[in-house]
Design a protein that fits this description.
Length: 86
C-alpha cells in the first residue's frame, strides 16, 4: 500500500489524493519519520499517539478560533459581568 501511495504522490505531485492527505496529516503531527521510514516500534502506541495529537490539535484550533471570535468574546464578557453582579 505504501509503495502505491508513494507512486501516486510522485506521479501526480500537484493532485490531492488519499496518499497526499495521509502524508500531510502525518507530517503536520510531527510523525514524518514514521512516514519516511515506514517503521514504528510499537504500532498500538503509535496509533494512540496519533489520536492524542489529533484531539490536542482540534482543541488548540478550536480555542484559537474562539479567542479570535468577537461574538465569543462578547458572550464571555457578558457572562462574567452577569456572574459578578449576582
Amino acid at each position: 500500500m505504501y509503495k502505491q501511495m508513494l507512486h501516486d504522490i510522485a506521479r501526480y505531485p500537484n493532485k490531492q489524493n488519499l496518499a497526499s492527505q495521509v502524508k500531510d496529516i502525518v507530517i503536520k503531527l510531527n510523525f514524518e519519520d514514521a512516514w519516511t521510514n515506514q517503521n514504528v516500534v510499537n504500532y498500538s502506541s503509535f496509533i494512540q499517539d496519533i489520536k492524542d495529537r489529533v484531539k490536542l490539535q482540534f482543541i488548540q484550533e478550536t480555542n484559537t478560533r474562539l479567542n479570535n471570535s468577537t461574538r465569543a468574546v462578547s458572550i464571555n464578557i457578558y457572562t462574567r459581568l452577569k456572574i459578578s453582579l449576582i
